[in-house]
């Protein structure tokens, strides 16, 4: 790769990382700061944002390092830890989207029973299940060598090249991982949304406005999920069935992998584009940051007035809006 191409690629990957980290931090702050968003349903949104934030902080910088230099100076132990974190966090992100779609399905199909069905302990169980499955398909098989053709732990031993970090695949692992973490969740999400559409057509007048907004947002999340992750899992499955010794050496692999990563940067943008409450919270947080910066640098009220940022904005950010029920469906 020429130096110019390396610079352009580095800028592009850095932009994806910054959008992933910044966007998901903004989502978490928005839910914490706005009482309209501080509800039980949005626990799933915060969980998804926290997962994507960890992906942006703990995985994407090392993926960019490998992509740009094709060199791994951090040793085989940390390499396997990094790959395990990558698989775990991507899996948790995908499964959380599945949980969100099930939550929307219950809200639309059982509106009268929804508040009695979606309880805090059930939300906790759902999140614990997501992380249990994510751990089961990441750290356990990779650290035990169950994902390799010869049954040894990848990237370790005398036969493995130094300063390389490879994700090895065998047929049983690929089939188990792809079915549990992508194909079955994808079918479940499509089925739930199809059922929601049928109910929306037959009972359009009975579906309240907030449920309609939630349905539109869910459609956008599922659409982005399919566009971003389907190419990767198709290639992942094909290479795994062939038991390819080094999937990262396939030119298309890096492209579809980073397309999947981009899904974590796209979700916060979708919330702001499709949901008024998130958009308002984003605006208040941004205005508050501008106001605080101006106070620190200039400490001048006329400057704040020039930017039309009232001091009251700082207090509004922390949730002095309307109090809503804990099962309010904001997104």
TrEMBL record:
Species lineage: Eukaryota, Metazoa, Chordata, Craniata, Vertebrata
Spans traversing the lipid bilayer: 6-32, 44-69, 81-102, 123-142, 180-198, 218-241, 253-274
Cited PANTHER family: ADRENERGIC RECEPTOR-RELATED G-PROTEIN COUPLED RECEPTOR, HISTAMINE H2 RECEPTOR-LIKE
GO biological process, one term: adenylate cyclase-activating adrenergic receptor signaling pathway
Mode of membrane association: Multi-pass membrane protein
Organism: Takifugu rubripes
Subcellular location: Cell membrane
Family statement: Belongs to the G-protein coupled receptor 1 family.
GO cellular component: plasma membrane
GO molecular function, one term: histamine receptor activity
UniProt entry keywords in alphabetical sequence: Cell membrane, Disulfide bond, G-protein coupled receptor, Glycoprotein, Lipoprotein, Membrane, Palmitate, Receptor, Transducer, Transmembrane, Transmembrane helix
Matches recorded under InterPro entries: GPCR_Rhodpsn, GPCR_Rhodpsn_7TM
G-protein coupled receptors family 1 profile domain span: 23-271
Organism domain of life: Eukaryota
Name the record gives this protein: Histamine H2 receptor
